[in-house]
Specification:
The structure holds 2 protein chains of 2 kinds. Chain A is of the alpha+beta class. Helix content of chain A is about 35%, strand content about 20%. Chain B contains 12 helices and 17 strands. In chain B, helix 7 (about 165-175) crosses helix 12 (about 330-345) and helix 9 (about 265-280) crosses helix 10 (about 295-310). The chains are: A alpha+beta, B alpha/beta.
Chain lengths: ~260, ~400
């Protein structure tokens, strides 16, 4: 299955956007880990900006960057959101409240707790009525989103935006599910090459669990292993190098994804 | 889209264990809703619980997955010859060629609610036997079902609130069309938990009475729990009468996180797209199973969208007065009810609803209607403005 990459968005530790991160991913500039700075999204009305949870802001930021790089209108594009952790901070606060005597649940927090909160805010912010889905496959969540997005590109013969993101849980959940940092990545995928296309991806599901492609740089490799959404790093590095390469991304047990990347 | 055969389906909810139990209850006009609340929840409401989950045992090799949601999933997988159907498909296609695309809104969240009540008083740590990956993570349901059924194909869990298990029919259809797999298990489970009960109460959306969809006096939802699974295969060799997935339509409201678009724009778009995907016109649909949650705003916006598209004659009803709102499991449960409607030649009348709101213009059924049912449409709409409609039918 083939799709073309028309735009990329990226925000992670030491990776402040796709353009500034490319020399880090190619090794021209040394990687220095620094917590990702996730600003309020100008896509949202002022009243909404303050109360949107971090994963929503993260997803909106990388999604917006990918559309900006692609020069494409977000309001007409279907979306695939994927996250292993979802709305972890909101979940934590809800569970604390429910373990208390009063159980005074905040209605805003409740509607922000759904796994598709980012998708909901995105559609409101971009006025996009196209289809949107919100996936989870634990550590394989990025692979799940990628295969779903590429299948949608093929099925619809139209552009699809893939937005993957994770935020660490607060304690006590962090101890049982450690996620190293905030990481978001977005790809705008199209069925045909456009003037902005940077690469063609040929994606295949393998019926075997192959060893996933690793990052040569140890800090980036720790990030790849430590944040489910950062399983996208080998793909990002290949796109940054602008070379023709085949890589393997982790998927569900007993499977993997093979991606042939061809620059264009 | 290319139609797919629904070769097996299984359901469990407050109407009973196994999908025929639901057919019997609907025939009798019986509701599974009871006055009371779940676990330690103490406000006045009605719920639709599945009996027997507390003492139910998860298969020994999968005991790490033990939680209310996976218990309900396993109980459902054991019904209606579903495991045998999957085993036959595994023989035909191979375990790696069958996808598992499931939906849930809260997975095993109740395990985390209980764990937060048992935190270490000194360190705040969760109890040592708490299992995040197998119970709390949204994918826990998918990992459990994939292992329970011995399948190794592609998969993931869709969690788009109350449209989740409708949307998975679309995921499976696309994956099969793209050749990523040859067959797929779809569906999912959602169980009662404190977060959804107190959450919907905080929004003022839970009723103290058994919910009354489309009633003039409707005043909110009744939350239920349930699971449903369906096995989808290519329809090349569909026998006459075989159940088919004919169309899927998806859209977003782009309006509000927890309130539907007042004019039903997103809902209408999902229905139009489902019809287009099936190559059908509104007049081809015999019956509509509404999302019909019994909130003022949902029913009004869904009625408007449905009336504008179908007019005043297409019979429709919500079965949530019987099952309660199964949240993430509503989509597959109501798809199964539609298959039962086709199989039994019965359009279920809305249970609990006494007087249809005169402001609503759709042709809402209050009594069961017995006649041939060939093509049906079912709606599922969720928080975040996530909409999905399915068209189902019988092969000619």
């Amino acid at each position: 299955m083939r799709a073309y990459v028309e735009g990329v968005g990226l925000l992670g530790p030491g990776l402040p956007g796709w353009d500034p991160s490319r020399p880090v991913l190619t090794g021209e500039v040394p990687f220095r880990s620094a917590e990702a700075v996730i600003g309020a999204s100008e896509l949202l009305p002022a009243a909404e900006r303050r109360r949107t949870p971090v994963p929503v802001k993260l997803a909106l930021a990388v999604g917006q960057e990918a559309f900006r790089n692609a020069g494409r209108e977000a309001s007409a594009t279907a979306t695939v959101f994927t996250s292993s952790s979802g709305e972890g901070e909101t979940l934590h606060h809800m569970c604390e409240t429910l373990a208390s005597v009063e159980r005074e649940v905040s209605p805003t927090r409740f509607h922000n707790s759904v796994h598709n909160a980012a998708a909901g805010y995105w559609s409101i912010a971009t006025r996009c009525r196209e289809a949107s889905t919100s996936l989870c496959a634990y550590d394989a969540s990025f692979g799940a989103g990628l295969i779903e997005a590429v299948v949608q590109v093929v099925a619809s013969a139209d552009a699809v935006a893939l937005i993957a993101y994770d935020q660490p849980y607060p304690e006590p959940l962090h101890s049982v599910r450690p996620i190293l940092g905030c990481f978001g990545v977005a790809f705008l995928l199209t069925p045909e090459p456009t003037s902005r296309a940077c690469a063609a991806l040929e994606v295949a599901l393998l019926p075997t669990e192959e060893r996933p492609t690793r990052m040569a740089e140890t800090g980036l490799e720790a990030m790849r292993r430590g944040i489910p959404a950062a399983r996208a790093l080998p793909l990002l590095a290949t796109l940054a190098r602008k070379t023709r390469e085949g890589i393997v991304l982790e998927f569900l047990s007993g499977t993997s994804l093979r991606i042939e990347v061809r620059p264009c | 889209m290319q139609p797919l055969v629904i070769s097996r389906f299984a359901g469990v909810n407050s109407l009973g264990i196994g999908s025929e139990a639901a057919a019997r209850a609907l025939r009798e006009g019986r509701s599974g809703l009871v006055s009371g609340n779940f676990e330690t929840a103490r406000f006045e409401t009605c719920i639709g619980p599945v009996e027997g989950l507390d003492g139910y045992r998860i298969r020994e090799d999968l005991r790490d997955f033990d939680c209310r949601n996976n218990r309900l999933a396993q109980l459902c997988l054991e019904q209606d010859g579903f495991v045998a159907g999957v085993a036959a498909a595994r023989e035909t296609y191979g375990a790696g060629r069958i996808g598992v695309f499931l939906g849930t809104s809260t997975a095993g969240l109740h395990s985390t609610e209980l764990a937060y009540r048992s935190r270490d008083p000194q360190t705040g740590a969760l109890p040592a036997d708490y299992r995040y990956a197998e119970t709390q993570n949204t994918y826990s349901l998918g990992a459990f079902a994939r292992r329970y059924l011995g399948l190794t194909g592609p998969g993931f869990v869709v969690s788009s609130a109350c449209s989740s298990t409708a949307k998975v029919f679309g995921n499976a259809a696309r994956m099969i069309a793209a050749g990523v797999c040859d067959a797929a298990v779809v569906g999912g489970a959602d169980t009662l938990c404190l977060m959804t009960l107190y959450g919907f109460q905080s929004l003022g959306l839970t009723s103290r009475h058994p919910c009354r969809p489309f009633d003039a006096e409707r005043d909110g939802i009744s939350i239920g729990e349930g699971a449903g699974f369906a096995l989808l295969e290519r329809a090349d060799r569909a026998r006459p009468g075989a159940m088919l997935l004919l169309g899927v339509g998806e859209s977003s409201d782009a309006y509000h996180m927890s309130t539907p678009h007042p004019e039903g724009l997103g809902a209408r778009m999902a229905m139009e797209r489902a019809l287009a995907s099936a190559g059908l016109e509104p007049r081809d649909i015999d019956y509509i199973n509404l999302h019909g949650t019994a909130t003022k705003s949902n029913d009004a916006s869904e009625d408007r969208a449905g009336f504008e598209l179908f007019g005043p004659h297409t019979p429709c009803s919500s079965t949530k007065g019987a099952t309660g709102h199964l949240l993430g499991a509503a989509g597959v449960t109501e798809a199964i009810i539609c298959l039962l409607a086709i199989g039994h030649g019965m359009m279920p009348g809305g249970v609990n609803t006494r007087r249809v709101d005169p402001a609503l213009r759709s042709h809402y059924l209050l009594e069961n209607r017995y006649q041939k049912v060939s093509r049906v449409l079912t709606n599922s709409f969720g928080f975040g403005g996530s909409n999905c409609s399915l068209v189902l039918g019988a092969a000619r």
